[in-house]
Design brief:
It is a single chain. The protein has 196 residues and is an all-alpha fold. Helix content is 76%, strand content 0%. The protein has 9 helices and no strands. It is globular, with a radius of gyration of 19 Å.
């Protein structure tokens, strides 16, 4: 009985720590949403839900809390149009396979989305190459006043070259371990929420 109580106590503590980290990430996103005048168009809770879905789709190669926190950078510095936010999160997570973390990927993508006409140079440093035709299309869209359209086009083109990269960072055994850790974390969160 005592061993079980200690085990439950450890699980509850881990769950509370995970919830606290997620809460901080959501608060950061909510702050970015408010700062950029996007209130009413999305919420930190919605971003966290998308991050959890993305984490599941990539076999937990990157953690939902990190994806949520990194999205605050996308919002603050990338000036991402609300319609482009979910696709940007997906591209960011796949770019993380090249940059090493979702935070560094969010910084790179935020710079590219903030000024799509200069995206080619920023992305090329990480080995992501935009063709002359793609660059010309982006430039024409920006000059026509369609920055959101230029972002959407850039994200679609990046998705073609990065899609699946995050999931491909793990072999079957590592993916199984990551998924097991994610399921365990979700169970701990649920236990902590019940305890609270």
């Amino acid at each position: 009985g005592a061993v079980a109580a200690v085990g439950i106590g450890v699980a509850v503590r881990s769950g509370i720590e995970s919830l606290a980290t997620l809460e901080s990430a959501v608060a950061s996103v909510d702050g970015a949403i408010k700062q950029m005048g996007l209130a009413g168009k999305t919420t930190g809770a919605q971003i966290a839900t998308w991050a959890n879905e993305i984490e599941t789709s990539i076999g937990a190669a990157f953690d939902d809390k990190a994806i949520t926190a990194a999205t605050a950078t996308l919002i603050r510095y990338g000036k991402v149009a609300p319609a482009n936010l979910r696709p940007a999160m997906e591209v960011m997570t796949d770019l993380a396979a090249k940059t090493g973390s979702v935070e560094s990927a969010s910084e790179l993508l935020a710079k590219a989305l903030a000024d799509p006409t200069k995206a080619a140079g920023k992305l090329a440093r990480q080995g992501v190459i935009l063709t002359k035709s793609q660059q010309d299309t982006i430039k024409a869209m920006v000059e026509a006043g369609d920055a959101a359209g230029a972002q959407a086009y850039l994200l679609r083109e990046l998705e073609k070259t990065t899609k699946g990269a995050a999931a491909a960072t793990q072999g079957p055994y590592q993916r199984a371990m990551s998924v097991l850790a994610d399921v365990t974390e979700d169970a701990q969160r649920a236990l902590a929420e019940g305890f609270l």
